[in-house]
Design a protein that fits this description.
32% of the residues lie in helices and 20% in strands. It is α/β, with parallel strands linked by helices. The chain has a single domain (4-212), classed as Aldolase class I (TIM Barrel). Strand 4 (80-83), helix 4 (89-98) and strand 5 (102-108) form a beta-alpha-beta unit.
């Protein structure tokens, strides 16, 4: 099966067009005001309206209140909400029950036990996204995950790999982890929050070239 590609932290129509043109499958819109990639709900809704049908829209929230979560889903109408904070399986089960939206949960990959603990989200989320452990920000820091932790692990839940991926290293990450989805943010930027359309193209090209090889 073809590897899925998510370009996260987009904030302009140009970057969305580049993602679509070069074969990405998902884009991420970040609604978290501490992030350099933050977009308001109004901006996110406008970007969502300009996104071609070939791309799934993922809205990223961090420890959002129930009120904000509902408001964000209703205003932006994403295909998927990516919960990137300390959200519990119990809370996400409620979202899963009441909101008609896909649910992803990001987890900071510290050690092999993180992979075991991810099973707590079975039947609650549609995908686990393994990222670097949270620092000052919960993601988008460019910090690389220890790919060897994922080698030959039997995942019960569909999953994806984030954390420090770039056009130069994504093929090696795929070789080691066999990730079905790869997620990039800072690795395709010219400055924090500023996406580089040439780097988006290079990242997508590197993924497809590895598959073909």
């Amino acid at each position: 099966m073809q590897t899925q590609i998510k370009i996260c932290g987009l904030s302009t129509p140009e970057s969305i067009s580049a993602a679509a043109q070069h074969g990405a499958t998902h884009i991420g819109l970040v609604h978290f005001d501490q992030s350099p990639r933050h977009v308001s709900l109004e901006q996110a809704a406008a970007l969502r309206a300009q996104t071609p049908p070939s791309l799934k829209v993922v809205l990223l929230l961090v420890n959002a209140s129930p009120e904000l979560t509902q408001q964000a889903i209703e205003r932006v109408r994403p295909d998927i909400v990516q919960f990137h904070g300390g959200e519990t399986p119990e809370w996400l089960a409620i979202v899963h029950q009441h909101m008609k939206v896909g649910i992803w949960k990001a987890l900071g990959l510290k050690n092999r036990q993180t992979l075991v603990n991810a099973d707590r989200y079975d039947d609650v989320v549609d995908r686990i996204l393994y990222d670097a452990p949270a620092q000052a920000l919960p993601g988008g820091t460019g910090t690389r995950v220890d790919w060897s932790l994922l080698r030959e692990f039997n995942h019960r839940i569909p999953w994806g790999l984030a954390g420090g991926l770039t056009p130069d290293n994504v093929a090696e990450a795929m070789r080691i982890t066999k990730a079905p989805l790869v997620d990039v943010s800072s690795g395709v930027e010219s400055a924090p929050g500023i996406k580089d359309v040439d780097k988006i193209a290079a990242f997508c090209k590197a993924v497809r070239a590895y598959e073909q090889a």
